[in-house]
Amino acid sequence: MTKVDHGVTLKVRCPHCHDVACFRLIEERPLWTLFGSDTTAMWYLRCAGCTYPVPVTPAEIDEIQQLNRDAQRFESGEISGIALREKLARSRAPCISFLLAAAEIQPCSRCGEDVPPSFAVCWNCGEASRVSSVTATCEQPSVPSCTLDPVTGSSHPLIVHSHSDDSVH
Q: 147: Cβ–Cβ under 8 A, 6 or more apart, which residues?
C-alpha cells in the first residue's frame, strides 16, 4: 500500500486511547492491481497517537477533504477557530459525528471504564470525578504542532473547555 498523509483534519479525544490527539487524513492506495481489480483508495482519519483508524466512506471523501483544507487554512491563519468549529459542527459526515460524540466520553479516573457525559458518576464504580487529558499540541515528532487559535486560545478549534470543569468536549 502507498500511504499519503493529507495532514491534520481535527484534534479531539481519541475513542481508543482516550488522549486528545490530532486526527490526520490518510489515503491508502494499492501498489498494483491484479487483472484490473478495483484500485479504489481507502481513506481514514487516523489518531496520531495510537494510530486508531476511523474509516471515511466514499460518500464522505469530498466533505472530509474540504474539512481538511479548512483545517489547513485555520493552521495558516486564513480562517478563525470559530469558523472551523462551525464547519465541523455542520458536518454531515458520519466519521466526524462519531469522533465528536466519542470525544464527549471520558475514562473513569478510578476504574478506567468509559463514562458518557450525561453520567455524573462512573456507572461501574461510582467515582464522581472525570478525567481531563488536554494537550496543547500534537507532540509527536512526525506530526506538526497545532497552533493556538488567537480567538479561542485553544490549540485547536475543536477542543472546547466547558464552563463547569476542564473536560474536553
A: 75, 155
Domain region containing 69? 1-169
At 7 the three-state DSSP class reads: strand
Q: What is the pTM for the complete model shown?
A: 0.64
Query: How do residues 52-95 score in pLDDT, each as one tens digit?
Result: 999 999 999 999 999 999 999 998 999 998 999 899 989 999 99
For 126-148, the pLDDT digits (tens) are 888 544 433 333 433 343 444 44
Cα 94 from Cα 151, distance rounded (Å): 28
- Please, where are the H alpha helices in 19-80? 61-75
DSSP 3-state of 56: strand
CA dist., res. 11 & res. 155, Å (int): 9
For the chain, the domain total comes to 1
Question: Beta-carbon neighbour count of residue 152 at 10 Å?
Answer: 18
